[in-house]
Amino acid sequence: MAETLRRVLTRGGAVWSGENTPAAGPPLLLLGTPGSGKTALLFAAALEAAGEGQGPVLFLTRSPLQSMPRGAGTTLDPMRLQKIRFQYPPSTQELFRLLCSAHEAPGPAPSLLLLDGLEEYLAEDPEPQEAAYLIALLLDTAAHFSHRLGPGRDCGLMVALQTQEEADSGDVLHLALLQRYFPAQCWLQPDAPGPGEHGLRACLEPGGLGPRTEWWVTFRSDGEMMIAPWPTQAGDPSSGKGSSSGGQP
Amino acid sequence: MAVVLPAVVEELLSEMAAAVQESARIPDEYLLSLKFLFGSSATQALDLVDRQSITLISSPSGRRVYQVLGSSGKTYTCLASCHYCSCPAFAFSVLRKSDSILCKHLLAVYLSQVMRTCQQLSVSDKQLTDILLMEKKQEA
């Protein structure tokens, strides 16, 4: 799944044109404090994965989105939106039921499984053993979808978890458990690289041997998501690999 | 899925699978490696395999789940897709303390795959849902 997010970030939110069928990459955990743009990035990943010849996408969240996430902006393609199936399990019990019976659902298997707000489900059922089974079922459901998609195609998995500024011991335990099952992680931090600028810093650790990469994500007033590589630490911000996402090939 | 065992375990299991195909038994050097990697769990897992305690349950959808009948008589559910077992040892030693890679039940599942000695059980899609959900209810 890390690969889908990397494509979202390296293409600067530009829609993916579908030249080849991309690999989904390892399951990815998206971490950030409240309001750090997790839902916006999940939604961008959903649109990315619902491109030509791909999809459908299954988007799980506890309650319906109240508005279009930031960044959905002007690039919203109704054909892609139609391929995103939203489901709203209202309780942990219902989420278990949905995952345990995912193989009974008719229709084509999703190529991407997304879950927003994992912390809400974990808070309801805080036993570590329960949390472990819930996470294992998420992975098993994605593995089953991959099996149904056939050889050479994988169903990606991306889960967003809200972190607190000051984690308590329960959060730390959950996080250790999650990191075991999600080798790839993306941390989102509200940040401002210059005066008067507001945005967030996205740091992707793809797991395994891949390099850590950082981006700077801002939202324009028209809702468009702008993504640029994070300026390198070495002083001069303009020495970053690219100045704006729009010019990336 | 990308959640993998440490490379050394993957390698050992695939070498064992090749050896079993050739000679229909696990050569001694692999048994020693197992013992080295997993300690007493290796013997206990082999014992579970010998007693045919592992059942692969599958439904027409293609979804699969393993059940292992533990030495205590209790049945545990294992998800081989992501290395999960419902036993207390997995929750404690593997997930909580990270001082083991696998519990004996999961190791038994992988060994039974290598030795092709699982019992097979076909159930309906609905029954498979109930089996997965029952696991959740047992924990509660």
Automatic annotation (TrEMBL), chain A:
Region feature (Disordered): 229-249
Primary gene name: SWSAP1
Matches recorded under PANTHER family: ATPASE SWSAP1 (PTHR28653:SF1), PTHR28653
Record's GO cellular component terms: Shu complex
GO molecular function: single-stranded DNA binding
One of the GO BP terms on file: double-strand break repair via homologous recombination
Transmembrane domains' residue ranges: none
Highest taxon listed in the record's lineage: Eukaryota
Name of the protein this chain belongs to: SWIM-type zinc finger 7 associated protein 1
UniProtKB/TrEMBL annotation, chain B:
GO terms of biological process kind: double-strand break repair via homologous recombination; protein stabilization
Record flagged with keyword Hydrolase: no
InterPro entries in the cross-refs: Znf_SWIM
Keywords: Metal-binding, Zinc, Zinc-finger
Upper lineage: Eukaryota, Metazoa, Chordata, Craniata, Vertebrata
Signal peptide start and end residues: none
Residue stretches making up the SWIM-type domain: 76-114
The protein's name in its UniProt record: ZSWIM7 isoform 4
